Amino acid sequence: MLRWALMFFIIALVAAVLGFGGIAGAAAGIAKILFVVFLVIFVIMLILGRRPRV
Predict the structure, then answer these.
(1) Fewer CB atoms inside 10 A, N or C side of the chain?
(2) H helix count then E strand count, the chain
(3) Distance in angstroms (rounded) separating the CA atoms of residues 34 and 20
């Protein structure tokens, strides 16, 4: 998931440098969403991994 977020971030940077503002904004928005989803899943996995097994 983090790899996809980084790819969209790089696409956004390249598009911004080349002057494609709409594509850059869309790619940056997708990258932000994917990064937040990654963080949520990461925190959930940390919490579940620290529970004592019964």
Answers:
(1) C
(2) 2, 0
(3) 21
Q: Any idea what the Cα angle at residue 12 is, between residues 6 and 17, rounded to 5°?
A: 130
Structural tokens at position 19: 């002057």
Q: How far apart are CA 2 and CA 38, in angstroms?
A: 6
Are 39 and 54 a contacting pair, CB within 8 Å?
Answer: no
pLDDT tens per residue across span 29-48? 999 999 999 999 999 999 98
The pTM of this model reads 0.73
- Which residues fall within 8 angstroms of residue 16, CB to CB, at 6 or more apart? 24
How far is 54 from 42, CA to CA, in rounded Å? 23
